[in-house]
Design brief:
The complex is a heterodimer of chains A (194) and B (484).
Chain A (H helix, E strand, L loop, with lengths): L5 E4 L1 E3 L7 H4 L19 H4 L16 E3 L12 H9 L3 E4 L4 H9 L3 E4 L2 H11 L4 E4 L4 E3 L5 E3 L4 H9 L3 H6 L2 H14 L6
Parallel strand pairs in A: 2-3, 3-4, 4-5
Antiparallel strand pairs in A: 1-6, 6-7, 7-8
Chain B lengths: L12 H8 L1 E4 L5 E4 L2 E4 L5 H10 L9 E3 L23 H16 L3 E2 L10 H8 L7 E4 L13 E4 L2 H10 L1 E4 L3 E8 L8 H12 L7 E6 L1 H4 L3 H9 L8 E3 L4 H7 L8 H11 L12 E6 L6 E3 L7 E3 L13 H14 L14 E4 L7 H11 L10 E4 L4 H9 L2 H8 L2 E2 L20 E4 L14 E4 L2 H10 L13
Classes of the chains: A alpha/beta (194), B alpha/beta (484).
Bound molecules: iron/sulfur cluster.
């Protein structure tokens, strides 16, 4: 997974609350055998609205999404995180997230930033015209207008994101322990290896 | 590794298997657990393999991994008369099958082809091939992996991210579960099958009763049960909310496994058996919870609702939702009855049927087919039944049944005799129950829409399913077994 220390750029000012995973990626895209390419189905119902932020050339390619309360609620589908990843989104800012979604986002290297509603409102305003910057090292979000908002994040998750470690990568980092176990296994329960 | 105790405290079977698989223990109690056996099928694996490919990772232990397609294969013939393979009409299913067919060789994993005699439902194939063994940790991207607990393995279902994690690392990060003993002692009544035993257990503890626990089934009823019966019981542990179920391995299991293709041979066999014999729970081992059931109280049973806990004896009636103490259960029961099209007080034996499904990883082994055939023999499927399917759990079960003439019994009675696979258990393949129609099914889930949108499912044993097929309505199989 890519290391994530800072995310800088324009942000999709979506703003709305209770964006569920069915809005992020509708069920009929789940028949895929790949986690790549889901970006084209992302926010399909929002994109059907004229003047939506996702089809506005102003925001094309933005690495940040700003939303309202309870982002990612609904079904536990990991496809929601895969879809955001495929769109090139590296961080989502919202006043709150569903637990399952933030877990899935983390597993896929996406940063979820929780900020109070007033801060989110200010960022939504700035995002319409200017870029914003997220600094994971200092746990802050800043704008070109001297705004600075600090956020909290689980230190384990922060460390993993900054080092680009996914859960598999973390376990693979314990290779010596797994190998030692396998060596003992090969003698003590030798019948298990084909 | 050895099932080395951390103290001299007597340990349960579960604790011994757990201790033997701890690679690393963290401060918060989470353990990195080694996985001995990984079963892979076509539905939950494509994104896991893709994840490996994207990250440039390999499968750590292809030798501990076995892939076989089962979920969405059609159960109609897979080869044309000229021997060529027939295509799968459903595009999504065909894609998933093709993905597994190419992923397996790419990552060096053993693969059982859709047309091989060894092909079948993962949970039938594992024990049948001797791949599943006592004291192992077994995972698969399917919740009924708990099945393999019937031979004394710690086995549970996992999601796609975990499938990828196991492929890459052969481990999983887990928290230890609590233990629940479910003891059934006494003599099972005439016509009472292992399926009735597990349905009665789920009826007693509830669909969430086992949440947070691993169940160990103890008592003479399980000791005297065949391996096939034990697999049926453990299979449905997940329907009682438990992540896994276990039955202590014994001579019955050893005799079942000996000589199977992937079972240990020669000196390795002796070494394995010696270790397996150390696994049963120590005298005095303490469980977090104990449930005791008298075998004599268990009757041939069926479900009436849309949760596997909605169980009544076949001699019973559809319950009145008001009879439940819990208001949320009253509400759930009302919804269930509306969906199922049943009214309180109706006798279960009066419930008419349109479909019969004998199959699934719960009840598609040779003993199940023998039990159903014994009832079907010399009889005819009722004219009100639109479709009666018998779907063997594997190609080898099918061949064995054919060698015993069971296929003829079923065909003569008017059942269809199909190719192995998950079939009507989950309606991901062409075998579906149409909306509003009713099926007596030997599978494990009676959820809303499980056998197809709007389908109505009554879970029961294979012999009860056969009896239902003959009569065209739910029936007490004991009346067709010559009484006592
Ligand atoms: S038969 Fe049903 S429960 Fe068993 S593996 Fe197949 S889909 Fe899962």
């Amino acid at each position: 997974m890519d290391q994530l220390r800072t995310v800088e750029g324009r942000a999709f000012p979506l703003g709305r609350k209770n964006v569920d995973t069915d809005v992020i990626i509708p069920a009929h895209y789940l028949k895929t055998i790949s986690r790549i390419g889901l970006g084209k189905g992302a926010f399909e119902t929002v994109r059907a609205e004229p003047g939506n932020v996702f089809d506005d050339p102003e925001y094309a390619g933005s690495p940040i999404l700003i939303a309202g309360d309870n982002f990612g609620c609904g079904s536990s589908r990991e496809h929601a995180a895969w879809a955001l990843n495929d769109m090139g989104i590296k961080a989502v800012i919202a006043p709150s997230f569903s637990d399952i979604f933030s877990g899935n986002a983390f597993k896929n290297g996406i940063l979820t930033v929780v900020l109070p509603q007033e801060a989110v409102d200010r960022l939504l305003e700035v995002a319409k015209t200017d870029p914003i910057a997220i600094d994971l090292e200092h746990c802050s979000v800043t704008t070109p207008f001297q705004d600075r908002f600090e956020f909290e994040i689980d230190s384990f998750r922060r460390n993993c994101l900054m080092k680009g470690l996914d859960e598999i990568g973390l376990t693979l980092a314990m290779d010596s322990k797994i190998s030692a176990y396998e060596t003992r296994l090969a003698t003590e329960r030798s019948w298990l290896s084909a | 590794m050895s099932t080395k105790p951390t103290s001299n405290k007597p340990r349960t079977l579960y604790e011994k298997i757990w201790d033997a698989h701890v690679v690393d223990r963290r401060d918060d109690g989470t353990c990195l657990i080694y996985i001995d056996r990984h079963l892979v099928h076509e539905v939950t694996s494509p994104q896991a393999f893709e994840g490996l490919r994207v990250a440039g990772r390999t499968v750590r232990r292809p030798d501990l991994t076995l892939a076989v397609p089962d979920h969405n294969l059609p159960t109609t013939p897979r080869r044309a008369a000229d021997g060529s393979r027939l295509p799968i009409a459903d595009l999504e299913s065909a894609q998933q099958l093709a993905a597994l067919e190419s992923n397996a060789p790419e990552f060096g994993i053993r693969y059982i082809d859709a047309t091989a005699p060894e092909q079948g439902i993962v949970h039938v194939v594992g024990p049948e091939q001797g791949f599943s063994q006592p004291g192992t940790t077994i995972v698969c991207g399917d919740s009924h992996t708990s099945c393999h607990g019937g031979i004394g393995a710690l086995a549970f279902g996992i999601g796609t991210s975990e499938v990828e994690h196991v492929l890459a690392t052969q481990t999983l990060l887990l928290k230890q579960s609590k233990t629940m003993e479910i003891r059934v002692d006494g003599k099972l009544g005439f016509g009472v099958s292992p399926k009735d035993v597990i349905l009665a257990i789920i009826g007693r503890i509830g669909a969430a009763g086992g949440t947070g626990y691993v169940i160990e089934y103890t008592g003479n009823v399980f000791r005297e049960m065949s391996v096939e019966g034990r697999l049926t019981v453990s299979n449905m542990s997940i329907e009682g909310g438990a992540r896994a179920g276990l039955i202590a391995p014994d001579e019955t299991v050893f005799a079942y496994l000996e000589g199977r293709p992937m079972a240990p041979k020669g000196a390795e066999w002796d070494k394995a058996v010696a270790w397996w014999k150390t696994l049963p729970s120590d005298p005095g081992a303490v469980y977090d919870k104990v449930v005791i059931i008298d075998a004599a109280e268990i009757s041939p049973s069926v479900t009436w609702g849309t949760s596997p806990e909605d169980v009544v004896p076949i001699t019973g009636v559809v319950p009145d939702p008001d009879s439940f103490a819990d208001p949320s259960k009253q509400e759930a029961a009302r919804k269930s009855l509306a969906y199922m099209g049943l009214t309180p007080g109706m006798r279960m034996v009066d419930v008419p049927l349109e479909h019969i499904f004998i199959g699934s990883c719960t009840n598609s082994r040779i003993e199940d087919l023998r039990a159903a055939a014994a009832v079907a023999k010399g009889r005819k499927v009722s004219s009100r039944i639109k479709q009666a399917l018998v779907v063997p759990g594997s190609g080898l079960v099918k061949l064995q049944a054919e060698a015993e003439g069971l296929d003829r019994i079923f065909l003569d009675a008017g059942f269809e005799w199909r190719e192995p696979g998950c079939s009507m258990c989950l309606a991901m393949n062409p075998d579906k129950v149409p909306p509003g129609e009713r099926c007596a099914s030997t599978s494990n889930r009676n959820f809303v829409g499980r056998q197809g949108p709007g389908s109505r499912t009554h879970l029961l044993s294979p012999e009860m399913a056969a009896a239902a097929a003959i009569n065209g309505h739910l029936s007490d199989v004991r009346d067709m077994m010559g009484g006592r």
